[in-house]
Amino acid sequence: MRIPAHSVCTAIRDDIVAGVFERGSRLTEEVLARRYGVSRVPVREALRTLEAEGFVSTRRHAGACVAEPSAQEAADLLEVRLLLEPLGAARAAQRRTEAHLKVLRGLVRLGQERARRGHSEDLRSLGGWFHETLAQASGSAGLTALLTQMRHKIAWMYTVEPQGRAVEDWAEHGAIVDAVARGDAERARALTAQHAERSTAGHRLRFPGDGGRVGRVIAVRGSQHSVNMASGRN
């Protein structure tokens, strides 16, 4: 049975994000085909996709290699996140389904419980599922794909240092879901912008010598005032 290229693409991307393949290392079709138990055809297709996403680059005389993004490219990625995630939340407020809300509320309840009990090992995956579901609720396949790709690249380029804000983070998630449930696009946008902005301070570049901590909080375009987290909640 032929394994689809997107499955191979996911496997290679996951290994790049996990650091199995280091930045700048060669990615030969033959070695990858053996690693994943597939032919070279889906590997070739996967590498083309990953090059378009920015995880792979092609070098003369070397072929496909793991990309080596600069510190500026990494900083730009966080700035793009501050623009796209609020847009996704605003769209979700307009287009979400009851099924989306059910999943989001379930994740918030679970995240808040884990945060109160200090189960930090579960919170990263729960946070990923939350943001993935919020993106899907936007009703835009293109925007969802961009947000998913962006999260993969941020996970590859950065580690996130604990800031002791787990309870506050999940309270913010809950407020975002409340705004989405009410169809309040502007409040969902503003709350998500603030949430993303606050989390930026904990990001540190994974790559030695690339500048360490991102030492600035990027101003959110269009955000003119702070939003009271407690107001307007059900």
What would you note in describing this structure?
The chain has 234 residues and is mainly α. Helices cover 63% and strands 6% of the residues. Helix 4 runs antiparallel to helix 9 (185-200) and helix 6 packs antiparallel against helix 7 (141-157). The N and C termini lie far apart (51 Å).
Brief digest:
With 234 residues, the protein is mainly alpha-helical. 63% of the residues lie in helices and 6% in strands.
Query: Sheet bearing the most strands, described?
Result: 2 strands, antiparallel
Q: How many H/I helices?
A: 9
Helix content: 55-70%
Terminal CA distance: 51 Å
Radius of gyration: 19 Å
Count of beta strands: 4
H/E topology pattern: HHHEEHHHHEHHE
Strand order of the largest sheet: 1-2
Would you tell me the overall average pLDDT? 87
- The gross shape turns out to be globular
**Strand residue content:** 5-15%
What structural class do helix, strand and pairing data support? Answer: mainly alpha
Task: State the low-pLDDT regions, or none.
Answer: 210-234
Task: Give the arrangement of secondary structure elements.
Elements: H1 5-18, H2 29-36, H3 40-53, E1 56-59, E2 63-66, H4 71-95, H5 98-117, H6 120-136, H7 141-157, E3 158-160, H8 166-182, H9 185-200, E4 203-205
Pfam families: FCD, GntR
Protein name: GntR family transcriptional regulator
InterPro entries: GntR_C, TF_FadR/GntR_C, Tscrpt_reg_HTH_GntR, WH-like_DNA-bd_sf, WH_DNA-bd_sf
